[in-house]
Amino acid sequence: SQATLLLIILASVASSVSLILVNKQLMKKYHFEYVLTLTTFHFLCTWLALEAVWRAGDVTPLAFAPKHLSTAERVKVAAAGVGSIVFMNLSLQFNSVGTYQALKLLCIPAVMAIQWVVAGVSTSARVRASLAVLLTGVAIATVTDVTFTLRGTFFGALAVLSTAQFQVWQGSKQKEFGLSSVQLTHTLAPYQAAITALVALPVDVMGAGHAL
């Protein structure tokens, strides 16, 4: 029903905003620096939750779908997803919340640019106009909380590029193999957790992360 859909949308917005504010508080007030380790647990919990739902009979994981991605494709898309989350967390760590949100919105035009350059897919004038209004509104709302630093801008730019590329690949693989977003997330999450854990070991656990 529409009421259920509205409730889901509101819950999604509330949980996303809460997660951003909690993470920022951890990083700023408590000087939490283990971003990669945090990301590893993020992917691991995502995989375990979807695995539990599938075991209950509600979701068919990619391994049991009629078609599936090769290991190389899984690793490629998973790596882009890892870059997206890791660099977004680093952007949040080294930027204000307003700057983080402003940079995050640039993912939308970045996706449009990648699709146009790679596949020649253009966007209608109405969509571009709507996007311009949205970006202008966010700029006005966050102007008092936007500050740029070299390090924060660097991680923010990497976050935008990796997120845009991940979303493009994610959409193309869903169409190519007829997968739902849940199925694709289910099959990528363990790969993403493994990739992030390998990077977190030298960076976070061995102390290299403090050099960031």
TrEMBL record:
It holds the Pfam family TPT. Residues 13-206 form the Sugar phosphate transporter domain. Its main location: membrane. GO terms for cellular component: membrane. It comes from the Eukaryota. It is found in: Membrane. Keywords: Membrane, Transmembrane, Transmembrane helix. It is a multi-pass membrane protein. The chain crosses the membrane at residues 34-54, 100-119, 131-150. This is Sugar phosphate transporter domain-containing protein. It comes from Bicosoecida sp. CB-2014. The lineage of its organism: Eukaryota, Sar, Stramenopiles, Bigyra, Opalozoa.
